Amino acid sequence: MAVPETHLVIVADHVSAAYGGRAVWQDASFTAEAGEFIVVLGPNGSGKSTLFRLLLGLLTPAAGTLEVLGRRPHQGNADIGYVPQRRNIDRDLPIRGRDMVHLGIDGTRWGIGLGDPADHRRRVDEAIASVHAEAYADRPIGQLSGGEQQRLLLAQALAGRPRMLLLDEPLASLDLRNQIVIAELVADLARANGLTVLLIAHDINPLLPVVDRVLYVAQGGLAIGKPAEVITTEQLSRLYSAPVEVLHDSHGHMFVVGLEAESAHHDA
Amino acid sequence: MLERGLGTLGAVAPYFGWDLIRDVHELFRYVFMQHAFEAGTIVAVVAGVIGYFVVLRGLSFAAHALSHIGFAGATGAALLGLAPIVGLLAFTMSAGAVMGALGQRLRGRDVTIGLVMAWSLGLGLLFTALYQGSAQLAIGILFGQIFGITAQEVLVTLVAGAITVATLVVIYRPLLFATLDEEVAEAKGVPVWGLSIVFMVVLAVAVSEAVQAVGVLLIFALIVAPAAIAERFTTRPSRGVMLAAATAVLFTWAGLVIAYYLPYPVGFFITTIAFGSYAVARLGSDFARRGAAARRPVPREEQFRHSP
After folding, report:
1. DSSP assigned state of A202
2. Which residue among B171, B172, B186 sits closest to A58, beta carbon to beta carbon?
3. Is A100 within 8 Å of B181 when comparing Cβ atoms?
4. Using only C-alpha atoms, what is the Rg of chain A?
5. φ and ψ at residue A205, rounded to 5 degrees
6. Which among A82, B7, B103, B250 is placed 20 to 30 Å from B14, CA to CA?
7. Strand A37-41 relative to strand A213-218, pairing
8. What is the distance between the alpha carbons of residues A171 and A147, in angstroms, rounded to a whole number?
9. ∠B198-A141-A207 over CA atoms, to 5°?
10. What one-character DSSP code corresponds to residue A65?
11. Tens of pLDDT along A35-89?
12. Which residues contact A266 (CB under 8 A, 6 or more apart)?
């Protein structure tokens, strides 16, 4: 049953990615539908962030064709909200979370933004409210907890009113409780705004309730499918090149066992 | 004013007292003081504004090195019979462009920057020796000659300062974006590499024009200290920029006033005020922050956080 073309927000046709002259993965063909929540999994260095760079137009495919939201990927695509892998924000950074969110609206414009439109301020307030960060949006962002920073960076991406969100390891360095909270928040926001989400993660567990499909990047290739098809002992063992077992509980939840050592190592 | 003409210079001690109007008259009695205030104010505003971004971008050491590279340029120009400012601009702008092109890779290059800096001082020393003029030239470039500024030099300072501030006004938001969140800014279409180069070239111009006022060695105090102080007291970029500029102007004025009455170099006073203010600001804001943190309730989320 073919999906109408207009619903496809990503169309990758035999795409190969190379970074710094080194082939990362080859011959990947997949599509993503509008409103899908896709979790991108794969071992360190397998090319998950490279996929994002391709979608953002920061890197051109070494081969094949790629379309994002009906166009060739191009730098400065206002329809994509991007939250890169979280770096450590300096505790003394003299910037409020609110200012970071504001840059998501007018950070690319020239000039000092005198007479900042009331509309912009309203959008900043809305974005902050949508991630429930009102309580700490006016504090220096470096002094907030990892989860609070992640919410504000998400608000920055949302303030630009995107159609697609690319989130690079938003759950890294959060405790399990906050991982679930942030994952649900992203899913709620995506549903409310009709956003397509691609989220890079190491651990699928907190994302099982919200994920539509899993895109995995491993051994020089990409594959996509429903969690039940992909998250199997056989597939994940291949994915991580290590013995992994998938267990199911009486509620139908899936538990991935044997990944502790892997998920403890995050990309630097 | 007139009755206290030049005839009495040296015979009458300069007035200093509670009569503020008379104080101001006294300070602006001589043309050299007027020029010093004019050039000093322009230099301070520019240093404060660009300093905010220098500190935010972690480029303090690079800015320091840039001024030393200017020393080689200025003495080299004098050797060739050109105006020192020509050599200053040529050297700092080329070096700035190279530093800017390195972008993020400039960070953590302390060894390379330090060696280029030392070599530049060495080159300047050679040029000074070859110049065979007096060491006065070198001392003037190293420590500034704010009381020897001509009307024409004030004009040059004004033009260079206006260009610097105007450029920063134009690139303000994208520069802030690229400074705080380079990856997102790049993805959003901000030309981060180009901005990095433009910023360093503008910094080169700012450093060059400031050299005649406070000299190669002391410019650091005027660029970095006011911005570092401002960043401790406001979390809003626009206020930070203005606070840094105002603080730099205050330092310069205070230094000039004190140096007018006391027989010691103005550069000493400006740097001392800068250092003292930074020390007080640091201690003060640390104290205030600790108080605020103690009053703030622990956010719910903190309870679940297992790693900082």
Report:
1. S
2. B186
3. yes
4. 19
5. -45, -55
6. B250
7. parallel
8. 8
9. 110
10. E
11. 999 999 988 888 999 999 999 999 999 999 999 999 999 999 999 999 998 777 8
12. A169, A172, A173, A202
- Which residue of chain B has the CA closest to A167? B184
Q: How far apart are alpha carbons B106 and B39 in whole angstroms? A: 31
Q: Who among A75, A112, A138 is closest to B187 (CB)?
A: A75
**Could you tell me which of A195, A200, A193, A139 has the C-alpha nearest to residue A167?**
A200
| Rounded Cα distance, B52 and A93, in Å | 12
pLDDT tens across B237-252, in order?
999 999 999 999 999 9
Longest Cα–Cα distance in chain B: 79
Establish if A22 touches chain B: CB-CB under 8 angstroms.
no
How far is residue A246's CA from residue A234's CA, in Å, rounded to a whole number? Answer: 9
Contacts of B56 in chain A (CB under 8 A): 94
Question: Rounded to the nearest 5°, which phi and psi values hold at B57?
Answer: -85, 0
Measured CA to CA, the distance from residue A251 to residue B207 in angstroms comes to 68
Q: B227 to chain A nearest CA, in Å?
A: 11
Which amino acid appears at position A18 of this protein? Answer: A
End-to-end CA distance of chain B: 65
Question: In terms of C-beta density within 10 A (0-12 exposed, 13-18 middle, 19 or more buried), how is residue B193 classed?
Answer: middle
- Residue B97's pLDDT band, with cuts at 50, 70 and 90, is very high
Q: How much of chain A is in helix, strand and coil states, percent to nearest 5?
A: 35, 25, 40
The whole-model pTM stands at 0.88
Long-range CB pairs of A43-47 (<8 Å, 24+ gap) are A43/A218, A43/A239, A43/A240, A43/A241, A43/A262, A44/A265, A44/A267, A45/A267, A46/A217, A46/A218, A46/A219, A47/A17, A47/A19, A47/A217
Q: How far apart are CA B260 and CA B281, in angstroms?
A: 26
Secondary structure of B180-239 as H, E, C letters? HCHHHHHHCCCCHHHHHHHHHHHHHHHHHHHHHHHHHHHHHHHHHHHHHHHHHHCCCHHH
CA–CA dist B11, A201 (Å, integer): 80
Residues of A whose CB is below 8 A from B282 = none
Dist CA B253 CA B34 (whole Å): 11
pLDDT of residue B220: 84
SS3 for A179-191 is HHHHHHHHHHHHH
Query: Looking at residue B162, what is its pLDDT?
Result: 96
